[in-house]
Amino acid sequence: MERLLEQRQPIRYRQRLCRVAAQLAALAGIFTSALGAHREARGWFHTGRLAASEAGDNQLEGALTVRSAIVSLYYGTPASAHEQAARARHILGNTIGPATTRGLLVEARALARMGRGDEALPLLRQAEDAFGRLTAEDRDDPAFGHTERQFLSHLGNAWTHLGRNEDAWQVQRRALDLYPPTEHLDPPLIHLDRATCLARGGEPEEAYRTATQALTALPDEHRTGMVTKYATDFSRTAGHAQLPAGKEFAELLRA
Q1: For residue 32, which of 1, 15, 37, 136 is within the disulfide window of CB 3.0 to 4.6 Å?
Q2: Each residue of 51-60: pLDDT tens digit?
Q3: Other CB atoms within 10 Å distance of the CB of residue 251
Q4: Domain count, the chain
Q5: Which InterPro entries match (predicted)?
Q6: Does 134 map to a domain?
Q7: Domain that holds residue 183
Q8: 39 near 29, Cβ under 8 Å?
């Protein structure tokens, strides 16, 4: 791909090549982010944004900006994630697509983590409306689309950080029902969100048990990257680390 882009090409061919390069960079960024290599993921998404911009594809450029915001949400700061998601919304304009729904949810989740729930709620309503207008093809593509299970997982995370435990659990149950047993990334994150709800609801023992089960159910090779980061974040906010279940969870993280 790099060799082809270095050669002189008619504009329409170069735009197609840039679009393919942007899509490949997006896939590389998604995989490296899931593995916990967030710096590499940011680099891939940055490269992809440049290629999408040269291709004149605003939707793809916006989607890559949203993906970068997701990296900031998990590995950086909510403020940075919010800024990037807002920038993506500007790039995407009024067009409704999967990048729109992802971006609105990232923006809402970031605001929820910053304690700005009043600003997050309208974005969640917009995201639900936009998701209802996606095509079947968009809902069937986990990389460049936005599947229902992904949408529900992210919505549940927003409700979790807004302190709406019952709303979160209803959405989390629906999401978990849609994931196959072979999926090893989103389901443990959903269970860790549930553990966060339990901890905030005054059930720390059950919270730690839920978090422990989320990790021990995973094959060892999948207990890395984003899942480990998520679990570590849970342990920092759950409190009551002196409880037997809390000590067991801490030992599991150190293993």
Answers
A1: 37
A2: 999 999 999 9
A3: 10
A4: 1
A5: TPR-like_helical_dom_sf
A6: no
A7: 179-255
A8: no
